[in-house]
Amino acid sequence: MLKALSAQDFHDVRRPPGTLWYDRPATRWLEALPLGNGRLGGMVHGGTDRERIQLSESTAWSGCPSATDLSPSAPAQVPRIRALLFAGEHAEAQRLAAEHLPGRPEAFGTNLPLPEVQLAFPDGPSARGYRRALDLDTGLATVAYEQDGVRVTREAFATNPHGVIALRLTTDRPGSLAFTLSVQDGALPGTTTTTDCSVVFSGHAYESLHSDGQHGVALEIHVRLETDGGTVHRAGDALRLEGADSAVVYIAVGTDWAGADPRARAESLLAAALEAGYEAVRAAHVADLRALMRRVSLDLGSAPPDIESLPTDARRDRLASGKSDDALLALYFQYGRYLTVAGSRRDSPLPLALQGVWNDGLASSASWTNDFHLDMNTQQNYWAAEPANLAECQEPLFGLLELLADRGRTTAGQMYGAPGWVAHTVTNAWGYTAPGAGIGWGMNVTGGAWLALQLWEHFEYGRDETFLRERAYPVLRGAAEFLLAYAVEEPEHGLLVTGPSESPENWYLAPDGSRCSVSMGATADRVFMEAVLRICAESAELLGVDAGLRTRIAAARRRLPPFRIGRHGQLQEWLHDHEEAEPSHRHTSHLAALFPERQITPRGTPELARAAEVTIERRQQAPGWEQTEWVEANFTVCFARLLDGDAALKHLTSLVTDASEANLMTFSAGGVAGAAQNIYSFDGNAGGTAGVAEMLLQSDGREVELLPALPSGWPGGSVCGLRARGGLTVDIRWREGRLEAARIRASRAADVRVRYGADLLGIRLAEDETLGLGLG
């Protein structure tokens, strides 16, 4: 029986976030170690003959804003396509949709990789005792080795307080440090110049695959060299250092995104860092990162010494061979938190793109671009933020949502004749809201509504009514207004359905056998319409506004289609029980009813929960199953919501072993979605971290459930600092597969029901009160 205890009965033993380490330099991008300050990213390779820091920056976008992205023939064709779909003439509806509905972007653009900073060292004998590492507690990437009797060390970090990347190089023999510093031109047009102590690249983010080759931000990369002893010479467009005791390299990047002055920004960042000095910049960085990383501790047990002594890539390979390594999974959880912090901060100008703030150049040169995908990926990028105690990391996402709500009003009015706002499948740094450029994926009318749910989640976790009133509610209200106007009556049963739209990014077989994507009443649309309407009404009631809107919402919700179970026992993806054209397709957008929504739950709707599970089973069993990183993360959280911890752990493990690389960064597999090779994608890392959090703690605003999906493979452990809805922070300890003790802290007064299995305990917490729990 669950009972209240003294909070002092919980012994808080916190484990450091952990360290990734390797016994050789990186030879590939997906072996390098990521640094980031929320805007500027760097992939550190750690070579002994050459150090490479491949740069990227969140505002380094090609393209520009545009007012001509909508198809001019779309408004007249939307009613006609609806009528055809209701009449069962799917093939003709699909033909017209392909011809008239896709967006017509001319300068959509993409985030682009920047040139890399290189340090070339003199030839020497092979290095011995090599080690490179990334400490998740400090964000310091280190390299150490011995060469020709000299101990060489390097330390790099990307600092948010000072906005630069800093690299310090030292040796234990005075006067032995020498290297050539350069900025290696990449694909961007530009020029490189030098001063006595700096290398400067000036260029533009121009490209012709996703833009017109004439639009993109202006950018500058300033690399400053500070030395202790030695001499510096200009060597063309590089600097050559000889005979130094130590050196520090500072890297600053500026762009003219949002009207900024790229040179002034880079120069001001460098000036501030130089004035503070390396030690002060380092100390500010470490304190800043630790304040976030140390909020959460996870202990799944220590690895035996022989496993702990293995490099991280060897441990990942060992896990892939079928051996267990729970400590590596705990490290992976913290790594997702680190990448979230490194890629998205309160002052970040843009949220995490498809590749976070790191850019391998592959997504930006693929057909689908390194942009903001609104049909799963951008949402998944932020799944870990609230439960993993990084709420402020969502701030840049809210800025993007406000931009979409503003730009999306034009799209809603011109294309659909509707009030409110709409955004479809993809967007960019300029707030693109038109449909995507291709049918089959571009007509996702609830992409913006889906993303807007993050605003409500942020409110639910913190219960900040000022945030709800001033930022969340205006965006959610606009999304609700659009959906109320866009939904039409389905003639057979009088249900309210949306369309024409697509269930991202899947296709079905119409009764006549034609392969179609557009439909009326896709289940995913129903999920997000119900969510937005419910949330909007609840918000309006809480704020005491818009009584008339609440009445309209209540009437509309009563007419939404029910969930249906199809002929195979699966949760239907469409209003009718169509066969899937691609049974192995990676997208299962209708399962959003299970996560992030709770419209389907194993306790409340067990038949539908089983149908959701059948959907997953059928996809995985289909020949050619498109397994990729975000899917494994998605299935991890889905099975956690289904209260099946062992299945969730299976998918989490597969995420690490089959969809994560040597540096534990996740990738979209080559051969899927037109990718020629594995392409880094941030979403799997964040989704995996969210999956672990869901296995250990769940909350819905009314109940907090302890260890809801604890795998049998994690018999003992502890977690401290996870957050639950309602302003709660939770610590849990378990042994032999059973709860041993828990502790709940409230940032605000709250009445909470705490669940552990079938046990329920109602508790009342005052503001800032901490209560212990255990079994009696």
Structure commentary:
- With 776 residues, this protein is α+β, with helices and mostly antiparallel strands.
- It has 17 helices and 37 strands.
- The strands form 9 sheets. The chain has a 9-stranded antiparallel sheet with strand order 2-7-8-9-10-17-14-13-12. A 7-stranded antiparallel sheet has the order 3-4-5-6-11-16-15. Strands 1-37-34-33-32-18 form a 6-stranded antiparallel sheet, covered by helices on one side.
- A hairpin with a 3-residue loop joins β3 (33-36) and β4.
List the defining traits of the structure above.
776 residues, alpha+beta, 9-stranded antiparallel β-sheet, 7-stranded antiparallel β-sheet, 17 helices, 25% strand, globular
The span between the termini is: 5 Å
Number of strands: 37
Largest sheet: 9 strands, antiparallel
Unreliable runs? none
Counted by DSSP, the helix tally is: 17
Widest beta sheet: strand line-up: 2-7-8-9-10-17-14-13-12
Q: Structural class, judged by helices and strands?
A: alpha+beta
Radius of gyration: 26 Å
| Shape descriptor | globular
Mean pLDDT: 97
Helix content: 25-40%
**Strand share of the residues?**
15-25%
